[in-house]
Amino acid sequence: MNKTAKLDRQQKRNLGKTVLRFIVSFGLMGIILYLFRAQLPTVFQYLKEVQPFYFAMAVVLFFIGLLAIAYRLRFVIQVHNTKLSVAAAYYVNLISLFFNNVLPSSVGGEMMKAYYLYKDSKGSVSVFSAVVVDRLFGLITMLLISISTIFFFDSAQGSHKIMGSIVMLAATTATLAIFIFNKKIVDLLCQLHIPLLPAIFIEKIKEIYRAMYEYREHKGIFGRCIILTLVGQITYIVVNYLLARSLAIDIPLAFFFFFVPILLLMGVAPSVNGIGVREATFLFYLTEFTTPEKALALSLLTTFFMILVGLISGVIYAFKGGLSSEEKNVSPG
Q1: How far is CA 289 from CA 7, 166, 200, 301, in A?
Q2: φ/ψ bin of 159: left (φ > 0), alpha (ψ from -120 to 50), beta (otherwise)
Q3: What is the reported pTM?
Q4: Is residue 262 within 8 Å of residue 173, measured between CB atoms?
Q5: Around Cβ 218, how many Cβ atoms within 10 Å?
Q6: Exposed, middle or buried by CB within 10 Å (0-12, 13-18, 19+), for 304?
Q7: Cβ 126 vs Cβ 87: under 8 Å
Q8: Cβ distance 29 to 273 under 8 Å?
Q9: Of 11, 14, 98, residue with least CA distance to 270
Q10: pLDDT tens digits, residue range 124-174?
Q11: Higher pLDDT, 20 or 268
Q12: Contact status, residue 92 vs residue 72, Cβ threshold 8 Å
């Protein structure tokens, strides 16, 4: 009876989260479209004039950049004494891209990535920690890239929005580092049995710490993962710059080193794959450098771009299904 009641409560919570995502996404989108109802013809005119060369370059570069992320996943998995071919690592990232578009959550794709790695590693639980660490590498590097723009993006110092965001990011990064890498803090949190923090939060901190702790013994792999993450993130930043160029929006590349990490970070907000939140973020930051109409056009083009790469990944997934016998080199070492 207790198990049934717990299951019912969990289902209600999941339903509530899904409803909240739809309300946030389509509520924000509805407000934005209403406020821009008079400018929508101009926005759509900009979208009709997209330069195919820049857009095609962005698509090709995106899939090339995914190679760096695939190699990173391969090294992350290697720490857990599990072998993973580059082809398999690339393919599970394609699967993740597809399910990010299908499931109403930015972590839906990561869940499917973990599922396929778990299934094809014959039940190796360590792959779940590997997926957590893989995502964590992206998060920390992304935050550091955005913070670093204060040193080479001159316009940042004159913008209250950008400077305020950088200060918040720096505080977030420092807090994250303390929670993840400081064993004393983790031990203290684990000893708290009073309702200061939810139990699930403490469990997540312990899980992340245990996962990251293993990498202290593999400094070479840790360094390679950082470099590969930088390559992958910088590639995605250039992709967003090319999308802006496809709309003839003249914004310095340095701005996107600040903005793209912010955009990715906002993807964890409760929404349906960032819809609504993404458009609001574009309007908040880009209007200092271009017109609101062009900022909205670029946000819609970026949404279309993410759907397109997800569909391309989905087509590949539809034809291939699970990992092929040639790729299925996911096994305990």
Answers
A1: 50, 18, 42, 17
A2: beta
A3: 0.81
A4: no
A5: 15
A6: middle
A7: no
A8: no
A9: 14
A10: 556 666 777 777 777 778 778 888 887 777 666 667 777 778 787 787 777
A11: 20
A12: no
